[in-house]
């Protein structure tokens, strides 16, 4: 009977991490929708990556709010032309 190679073990670990990652991503998306954040899937992914990189959560939320406010001001200025 052949012994499992370390490559098979690595592939299994990679598969499990991918499945867990997809589950976590889906849960984050569900929470975002429940809280009505209005963040796109891409924006959520970026926020999660920033948090994983060590960005302070409150600082990130303040930056998102500031960007939204500036975009609203910009869009209001565009519609007034």
UniProtKB/TrEMBL annotation:
Pfam families: MOZART1. It is found in: Cytoplasm, Cytoskeleton, Microtubule organizing center. InterPro entries: MZT1. GO terms for biological process: gamma-tubulin complex localization; microtubule nucleation by interphase microtubule organizing center; mitotic spindle assembly. The keyword Cytoplasm applies. Keywords: Cytoplasm, Cytoskeleton. It comes from the Eukaryota. Its main location: cytoplasm. GO terms for cellular component: centrosome; gamma-tubulin ring complex; interphase microtubule organizing center; spindle. PANTHER family: MITOTIC-SPINDLE ORGANIZING PROTEIN 1. Belongs to the MOZART1 family. This is Mitotic-spindle organizing protein 1. It comes from Anopheles minimus.
């Amino acid at each position: 009977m052949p012994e499992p190679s370390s490559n098979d073990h690595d592939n299994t670990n990679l598969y499990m991490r991918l499945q867990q990652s997809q589950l976590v991503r889906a849960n984050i998306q569900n929470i975002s929708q429940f809280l009505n954040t209005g963040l796109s899937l891409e924006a959520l992914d970026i926020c999660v990556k920033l948090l994983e990189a060590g960005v302070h959560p409150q600082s990130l939320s303040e930056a998102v709010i500031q960007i939204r406010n500036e975009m609203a001001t910009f869009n209001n200025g565009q519609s007034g032309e």
